[in-house]
Design a protein that fits this description.
alpha/beta; Aspartate Aminotransferase, domain 1; Aspartate Aminotransferase, domain 2; 2 domains; 40% helix; 14% strand
């Protein structure tokens, strides 16, 4: 019999499609817990709250009514109409139902958008720190990421002047995430106006604006770049139900875009999957049009957790952290800790710092290289206050032990 190695058939993109450090650290935390170790995991951006009761009830009612069959690829008309109303009322975005495409999670909506407009050699400006999947998907599409970085001193927001200097004739897309994962930064209306001005000056340039954390803002106000003059035709607005409504496992996201792009996104989705399941879409209508008491309660809980994390991190020598006006992430600059030793072990990278925090102190975090910022680490505070207090005490002990 001829020997056969299935791995020999794998192509390069199968190796590139990897979220790397996030998955690695969360998996290591699970394995150590399974082995009996007390681990506090601050890795995944998943709310620890249950989905609000009215949303669950709407899904149950839809299933009992027999709405368990295939749905249109771009989404059921009722939800697309509800989203059109929501976008206009809450965001100032004027998109008709035919310009809205539902997806199996915001991640798929992002992939649909990038795969629809980015081809071989197209340049995509990415504002670091950025969410991991942006870069992976751009490379998957054959595009070239152009990474611009802003740290603590710039509130994690790259100035429009630096973005303008990076635009070339091959630049096709700028990816914007406000509120931001991993930094929690929120772009103001004035900052967005500066970005919009440079976009309008170029004939083939668009913005993909990921706004999935819009309901988790503590200070400042949500502003959508697509609502600015001249930006409606130049913006793909991505959003979803996972974060604000604690619906991560329901897998429902959406994008609003000019109709030709929205339809292309629908074709892309039809090729790789199908329409989001129908009873979840019915539940999403209840989320949009029902009471927001639970959403507000979750936001206030995240605010309290944010305050705990900020106080803990700002007390650590060698650690720098800016304000966190939104989301449930902290992204401290730990470059002041690198080059120090834990006993005989040199902590020379954020990766080695995260590994040491987990192995020696039972706290799982994510190194910043996954987000385009190798001198930082990400901590998710989408967990209970007791876990946060335990994690911050352990991190304090760990940092103080370095020499």
């Amino acid at each position: 019999m001829t020997s056969f190695d299935p791995a020999s058939l794998l192509v390069a993109r199968s190796q590139a499609a990897d979220e790397g450090p996030i998955i690695r650290m969360s998996q290591r935390a699970r394995e150590l817990r399974a082995g009996g170790m007390d681990v506090v995991s601050l890795t995944l951006g998943e709310p620890d709250f249950d989905t609000p009761d009215n949303i669950q009830a709407a899904a149950t009612a839809a299933m009992q009514a027999g709405l368990t069959h295939y749905s249109p690829v771009m989404g059921i008309p009722e939800l697309r109409a509800a989203l059109s109303r929501k976008l206009k009322q809450e965001n100032g975005l004027d998109y008709g139902p035919q310009e809205i495409c539902l997806a199996n999670g915001a991640k798929q909506a992002i992939a649909n958008a990038i795969l629809s407009i980015i081809g071989e050699g197209d340049e995509v400006i990415m504002l670091a720190p950025f969410w991991v999947s942006y870069e992976i998907t751009v490379r998957f599409a054959g595009g070239k990421p152009v990474v611009l970085t802003a740290g603590v001193d710039e509130n994690y927001k790259v100035p429009a002047s630096r973005i303008a200097a990076a635009v070339t004739p091959r630049t096709k897309l700028i990816i914007l995430n406000s509120p931001s994962n991993p930094s929690g930064a929120v772009w103001t209306a004035a900052e967005l106006a500066g970005l919009a001005a440079l976009v309008r000056a170029h004939p083939r340039l668009m913005v993909m604006s990921d706004e999935i954390y819009e309901y988790i803002i503590f200070e400042g106000q949500m502003a959508s770049i697509g609502a600015l003059p001249g930006m409606r035709e130049r913006t793909i607005t991505v959003n979803g139900f996972s974060k604000g409504f604690a619906m991560t496992g329901w897998r429902l996201g959406y994008a609003a875009a000019p109709e030709p792009i929205a339809r292309a996104m629908g074709r892309m989705q039809s090729m790789v999957s199908a329409g989001a399941n129908q009873f979840v879409q019915r539940a999403a209508i209840a989320a949009l049009e029902g009471p927001r008491d639970a959403v507000e309660a979750m936001r206030e809980a995240y605010r309290r957790r944010r305050d705990l994390v900020l106080a803990g991190l700002r007390a650590l020598p060698g650690v720098r952290i800016g304000d966190i006006p939104a989301t449930f992430y902290a992204f401290p600059d730990v470059s002041g800790l690198l080059g120090r030793k834990a006993g005989n072990h040199l902590i020379d990278t954020a990766d080695s710092l995260c590994d040491w925090l987990l192995d020696a102190h039972g706290v799982a975090t994510v190194p910043g290289n996954a987000f385009g910022a190798p001198g930082s680490i990400r901590l998710s505070f989408a967990c209970g206050e007791a876990d946060i207090a335990k994690a911050m005490a352990r991190i304090r002990e760990a940092v103080n032990s370095l020499c």
